[in-house]
Write a structure and sequence with these properties.
With 292 residues, the protein is mostly helical. The protein is built from twelve helices and four strands, in the order H-H-H-H-H-H-E-H-H-H-E-E-H-H-H-E. Among the domains are: 53 residues; 65 residues, Orthogonal Bundle (DNA polymerase, domain 1), CATH 1.10.150; 60 residues, DNA polymerase, domain 1 (Orthogonal Bundle), CATH 1.10.150.
């Protein structure tokens, strides 16, 4: 090539280009050459570290495979008492330590003020679930009942008062009861309609703004007739109708209907407990209202 050729490269430029290429190759291959002569560091793990890693890996795998149901996993709620105790002497804090909420503990204290004489009395308190009762029943003791001298005791015949059936009472009849005004009469009937009828007196405490004082004033004046309770037919009821019941939410109602569709129909009301969303406490509250 001649100097006039546009592709002509002078000898000086060719030397510069060769040096640049050599430098690039040196930068690229120097680390690889150094790594070839280095001895790799051996990393060792103890058996404890390996075991811990495996446990952590299994936990993560379990979490990510089941996380859609994680929110419904049942957690241990109640605890056994540390020693034998008299339920009549337990404080609110001690009942809460066994797993009751503050409101539930306050209800237990109200009942214990009248004196609990046996585990049967304790079990009748509606906030004491079967799970908690099973944990505490063998740790309770009660003071001996004083002997009554029947010969010297004056027997007073009480006038029999006709009690009002709360499942058929009108708003006017409820308003006439001692301690119940127009507000509570209206709320009782509203909640009665939502439930389909009261199955036990303790449910009155679930009425909006009902107080322990009003409840204790009302209960001696009423009775429960279960014959008029409205049942939920599990084989025909809709999701919307189930969701309208105070003891069920939309997810629970939907799971019951989906289970029915999968098996065509229910043959036993206990089958709904197979749903991960229906726990034992919810099922026990629903039993009086279920039918096939």
């Amino acid at each position: 090539m001649t100097p006039e050729d546009p592709l002509y490269i002078s000898k000086r430029n060719r030397r510069g280009l060769a040096v640049l290429i050599a430098l690039c190759l040196l930068i690229i291959f120097t680390p690889r050459i150094l790594m070839f002569f280095e001895h790799p560091e051996t990393i060792t793990f103890s058996s404890e570290e390996i075991t811990a890693f495996k446990k952590k890996h299994r936990y993560k795998k379990r979490y990510f495979s089941n996380r859609s149901y994680q929110k419904y996993e049942k957690k241990e709620r109640f605890h056994a008492p540390p020693q034998k105790f008299n339920p009549n002497e337990y404080s609110k804090e001690q009942w809460m330590n066994l797993g009751l909420s503050e409101k539930q503990a306050a209800i237990v204290l109200k009942f214990s003020k009248n004196g609990l004489r046996s585990n049967d009395d304790l079990k009748r308190i509606f906030v004491i679930s079967d799970e908690l009762f099973a944990l505490i029943k063998d740790s309770t003791y009660y003071p001996e009942r004083p002997k009554i001298d029947y010969e010297s005791k004056k027997v007073v015949e009480e006038k029999v008062i006709e009690k009002l059936n709360i499942n058929s009472a009108s708003i006017e009849q409820l308003e006439s009861l001692k301690g119940i005004g127009p507000f509570f009469a209206k709320q009782i009937i509203k909640y009665r309609d939502q439930l389909g009828g009261f199955a036990k007196k303790e449910q009155i405490l679930e009425v909006w703004k009902m107080t322990i004082e009003s409840y204790e004033t009302l209960t001696p004046q009423i009775e429960i007739n279960k014959s008029g309770i409205k049942k939920l037919n599990l084989n025909t009821i809709t999701v919307e109708e189930l969701n309208a019941h105070p003891y069920l939410n939309w997810s629970q109602a939907n799971s019951i209907v989906k289970m029915r569709m999968q098996r065509t129909k229910f043959n036993d009301v206990n089958e709904i407990k197979e749903s991960k969303l229906i726990d034992e406490e919810t099922f026990e509250k629903l039993i009086p209202y279920l039918s096939l």
